[in-house]
Amino acid sequence: MIDIQAIRKDFPLLQQKIYNRPVVYFDNAATTQKPQIVINTINEYYQKYNSNIHRGVHFLSEKTTEAYENARQIIKNYINASFQHEVIFTSGTTESINLVAFSFGEKYIKQDDEVIISQLEHHSNIVPWQMMCERKGAKIKVIPATYNGDLDIAALERLFSDKTKIVCVNHVSNSLGIINPIEKIIQISHSHNVPVLIDGAQGIQHQPVDVNKLDCDFYAFSGHKIYGPTGIGVLYGKEKWLNEMPPYKSGGNMIKTVTFEKTIYNDLPFKYEAGTSNFIGAIGLGAAIKYIENIGKQNIFDYEEMLLHYVSEKISKVPGIRIYGTSDNKICVISFLIENIHHFDTGIMLDKMDIAVRTGNHCNQPTMKFYGIEGTVRASLSFYNTIEEIDYFVESLLQVKKIFA
Amino acid sequence: MIDIQAIRKDFPLLQQKIYNRPVVYFDNAATTQKPQIVINTINEYYQKYNSNIHRGVHFLSEKTTEAYENARQIIKNYINASFQHEVIFTSGTTESINLVAFSFGEKYIKQDDEVIISQLEHHSNIVPWQMMCERKGAKIKVIPATYNGDLDIAALERLFSDKTKIVCVNHVSNSLGIINPIEKIIQISHSHNVPVLIDGAQGIQHQPVDVNKLDCDFYAFSGHKIYGPTGIGVLYGKEKWLNEMPPYKSGGNMIKTVTFEKTIYNDLPFKYEAGTSNFIGAIGLGAAIKYIENIGKQNIFDYEEMLLHYVSEKISKVPGIRIYGTSDNKICVISFLIENIHHFDTGIMLDKMDIAVRTGNHCNQPTMKFYGIEGTVRASLSFYNTIEEIDYFVESLLQVKKIFA
Amino acid sequence: MTIDQIQEQIVEEFSVFTDWMEKYTYLIELSKELQGFKEEFRINQNLIKGCQSQVWLQVEFKNGKIIFYADSDTVLTKGMIALLIRVLSNRTPEEIVNAKLWFVDKIGLTTHLSPTRSNGLISMIKQIKLYAIAYKTKYNI
Amino acid sequence: MTIDQIQEQIVEEFSVFTDWMEKYTYLIELSKELQGFKEEFRINQNLIKGCQSQVWLQVEFKNGKIIFYADSDTVLTKGMIALLIRVLSNRTPEEIVNAKLWFVDKIGLTTHLSPTRSNGLISMIKQIKLYAIAYKTKYNI
Ligand SMILES: Cc1ncc(COP(=O)(O)O)c(C=O)c1O
Ligand SMILES: Cc1ncc(COP(=O)(O)O)c(C=O)c1O
Known about the structure:
CATH architecture of the largest domain in chain A: 3-Layer(aba) Sandwich
Number of strands of chain A: 15
Helix content of chain A: 40-55%
Helix content of chain C: 40-55%
Structural class of chain A: alpha/beta
Bound molecules: pyridoxal-5'-phosphate
Number of domains of chain C: 1
Oligomer: heterotetramer
CATH superfamily of the largest domain in chain A: Type I PLP-dependent aspartate aminotransferase-like (Major domain)
Number of strands of chain C: 3
Radius of gyration of chain C: 15 Å
Order of helices and strands of chain A: HEHHEHEHEHEHEHEEHEEHHEEHEEHEH
Number of domains of chain A: 2
Radius of gyration of chain A: 22 Å
Distance between the termini of chain A: 40 Å
CATH topology of chain C: Sufe protein. Chain: A
CATH class of the largest domain in chain A: Alpha Beta
CATH class of chain C: Alpha Beta
CATH topology of the largest domain in chain A: Aspartate Aminotransferase, domain 2
Number of helices of chain C: 6
Strand order of the largest sheet of chain C: 1-2-3
């Protein structure tokens, strides 16, 4: 297990008082806090080495390029990709998915083709596919979910046709915290010769990810949700696809030769990294992943699971509470409503008690529609949260109930 | 004028020794150094307020959202846009141009239409148009340049046809530093009812920009080139175009309602800001622009012009030097070759003397082809550079000559 | 009383509260007292959809004055609506057009009018101002 | 001499230089002495395009050994080529396949082999190794 007191000291924001006491930060699914080492790394690179990467002949440029490519190596190892050039830096999960929707779409999707997504996707894994399908005259098919938030895998099998070109599901759903059986989904899809994109925005920081073992074709995630900086993300893609697809963004660095008549694209990974990358962001993300590795990701996941059991048990005692996503396969996210109290009212009151939660539809309207509600209160925890915070949170919920009674 | 000694103290990197002495950083067109206040702002927001923006009901989220929207306001004022929602945050110039190439292309470009760009564009203002034109069956026409690096404006008039849909030129060319007569280009284009995109990657930090007065339709720039963080950029667009065009990236935040059948896009500027923005990057960019405003941009530009005159005069005395881009309309960029010495050899030697310049084709192969060369050495200065640095630079060039004699 | 006088009155009322809890308890009280929104007006046409909560707004023009009724699905927003009605309803278009709402800030509830919260209140006020401008123009007053 | 012995020799040669200036002057010397690249081989097929500079590479297989000739448009790269030829040319495929090039690091010229510099040298070495593997397989040696 982890030394929670030591870990909390690594995160300066957790020491911040909001109104009366240090914040109870339960909004980790929206974005995570950064350990001091990540902030220091960003600082250091701006103060000592900042310089544009690649093709620079000077010392600073070489230093920054090395650090940038080293970050790629760290990520490659963390997700166990086969090659470093299968790790593409993007600005976040949303851009990673847009990249695949565009580039895969341009290459492989024709009129009447079909894309399979699930009922419980984040808008970032719905709208890019919709837009591409609209452009191409293709269709979206939806894997249904069961009431407890699990996907209906039996139904998936029936969705395939010879027009199915790609399957796109999240590793963990953001509004409910449900862990999807992605191994199985990938297996089934591959048995139909259909590649799979995993939206790992909520997966990478709470679950082991081995892209080689998973055999997924694409895996997308955001730096800011895994204790790294904003504005940086990753797309892992199998070499084969990355080689075959046309680029998404274009511009500097992603080409070999340009004339006004014709342009020859650069090798991987640069083909997909047009323009000046967020190199300081990438270096910061590398530092974040190193930080996780130092603690040991299994230690983190074990501790988070303990928190999940504790909070689930505790919160179930609050009278009138209703949890959305009751499956056992979940990360430490509690999406809920208290009877007769609007999620907004709950959120505002918790804020006044120095508890940060998210309220609303969580960029996940189809999920809300599925439950016939407008939104929920979502408490999403991370390994720097504590049992004591959970106790205080549950007490506060009881107080909210009293206030609105 | 400015107090150069005071200003240099604001930039920690300039105090860094590389081999023997503090770096002479003449690679500002590639990326700029950051004043301490920008680094501190990033620090502070990660340590105290970091939280995902928009729709959060808690204190931290509100603080960060306010700072993010405040950065938008700062930029709106700096470029004198009509509305805050005409300022779209992107990941950089390259993304800004890709956005317009895609979204404008989807809406307005048909088979056989024409896009006008110039001979002296950065790859980021060539390839996105090429890719779009290829998709749409449209064509690119090129404004020719004269040998000194000025665009041949007389020729522009003749390029228009009733198929011309957009004109895209840079404000200042990156490989030569030539300031283009964008007012005139915009005026001519508008007289043909054709909108204009200005690639301001090298313009915004060295020239006054008033998008209202210019009446440009789009203006794109990168944060990292104007003393701000990496991974953040801006697209200014006239409200009319931004309203009419479809979005580029899609996902969270950029929609109002999502069902699997149909999606309704959000209002400006959010329609174009899918996913979690680089909010800390935007806040850092706001700090950078505030920093410039505090010094006074005219003071900066005057000082830079003085540097230009000084370096031009001095360097012309180096025997065998050849300057590319000899027009009088230029910013403080010297692109050159020394007779019989390869740009790479010059660059490596200057590096050893602690001078950082860029060598190669500067993502600008058509310009190199125009001059029939493989690349140049480019020294690009900024307002934190000094007369003394220029003296040392010119001495060093003389030494390079001696070494390779 | 003028709009400013009412605002002063509200500020005074709130000045007795020593912490946020008391303020919010009072807001909840106000929300319970908020009456007058007829079921027949709870229609899509009157709906202002915020990201977090919804507001319904119904406007009447009577004897040169604008009267409005509003409701919300959240209690706290409803409490705020009660305050806004006290300040802005039953006023001439001229008064509404010129009104500056400074009381929200003074009583420490700015967050509820923050554009970042998107609870529908800001859109509601905007909508009321637009009505005022429209009536002012229409009746030339 | 083995590849490692030559490398040691080079490291010793460089050990007398006390600053970068002397090293680079020596590299420039070496570049001037680099001979043997025939004009007829300066063709596109032999060209390795780096982002910063270009390298031409021509390979011969004679008496079970790989001999190679190379040239570059930059003087410093050419100097490096001279060193690489001393180490790697006229060797059996086996030797080349197993060679580890540690001397570049030791003499403080790593930057010239840094993948970030893209001056064609790394691609050149890769190319030579590929030839070695090909010959090794072809002749089963
Ligand atoms: C004129 C010009 N346009 C576009 C770009 C691309 O900017 P970025 O790499 O920040 O996207 C650059 C950067 O070098 C530039 O100089
Ligand atoms: C499941 C899921 N997918 C995609 C995203 C989008 O990530 P980002 O906003 O960092 O691009 C999120 C973020 O909330 C998410 O939770």
